[in-house]
Amino acid sequence: MQNIAGFDFFSLTYDDKGNLTSTAELEALKQRAGTATDVIFLAHGFRNSVADATTLYTNYLTNFRAHFTRPECQALGTCNFAVAGVFWPSLAVPEKFAATQNGSGSTQSLDDDAPIIASLTQKLNDLKTAVPEAQPQIDQAIKLLPNIKDDGAAQNQFMQLLVSTIKDPKPDPTEGLDALRNLDGVTVIQKLSAPLILTSAPTDGDFDSGGTQSIASGFFSALGGVDFAINLTTWWMMKNRSGTVGANGVAQSVRAIAAVKPTLKVHLVGHSLGGRLMAACASSLAQDPIYHPASVTLLEAAFSHFGFSSNNGKGTPGFFRNVIDKQVCQGPLLATFSAQDSVVGTTYALASRLADDNVKAVGDVNDPFGGIGHNGAIMTKESVAAKLKQAGAPDGKAYQFQLGVVNCLDGSGGLIKDHGDITNPDVTYAFACSVVSTQSAVIGSTP
Q: Are 229 and 188 in contact (CB under 8 A)?
């Protein structure tokens, strides 16, 4: 056990199948839960080291702790918190997708392929380390890189090898994997080589005046397309892994902690693919015997903006629809989003590019492949949208969250500046108000 920002902190480590590898820590947490009123489960997203994730948790908990002195958050001081930090084997995905650009942001010389190929090779080696079972395919893909720029056969073989590493027995049709699998390599790389145009938001606080931003893929060449293809492959592989860890591993740990005593309040918090992990956890908790966590907070979550919808417009319910149908969350269900989240926006825009849906700016609310961390919950009647409040705003009023819906909090315009900007005082204030609102709730679910 550690102590972070005054909270007893327990590290729960899971392997890629969701198996808990730190059973002693879980047993210690169960013992601690006997004296706790609230247990917070935190899940990181794209991280490639324990140190990275621990820093995220430290910053988040430090700013959460700072709200205890606010008049509207005084109830937090009466709580006895324990924290479970979830550590799962994820691989970092670049926020700006800039492996093919130089430090100034401008594109590399057309004749300067060697640094780009070296960067692509390193990405593939990192992927091979993270997913050892994919080593044979990735080794073959690396050998194709020197000739891939101008060789259509090499491009086709390269993409076949990459796609073969993605094991997803039940793909979400709103995530775009089918589009990738249905195209040959030449077409995929060509589609991913042109610049993307995404919706964006200004940083001056004017939430209502939108705009666009262009994201260059390499220097509009095949190598730029390969760069994005590797990022997409990494994304889908880690997406599948996060869902497995959440549904198979974290959900089981939550049930074990909840069984300690019926009055214990459990709060689920996840960032990026950790948001997908916690959504998968909540979906698993919806199965009999159902368990109702006190709150669920999804921070720039990396899954479809139709994830909670009953119908995405084509008759398909969202992947996590049962969380709504079963009313799993006893207290507030929060989902932050920001038009400045380039990671979620770019990845889903790439899916649109593969599906020939790039007639205008993509990744926004009208895109069939948009992400919840970029747009909020779309086509979900059980959702409400509001601006993310500034902590300590002049009105001095805490949030009044609705129950039974997704409370979508818009951080566009500078309150959530990028995909990783989720530990700041404004974001943690929303969570603090959510926890306060659960303190009068009656907990009595079967774990």
A: yes
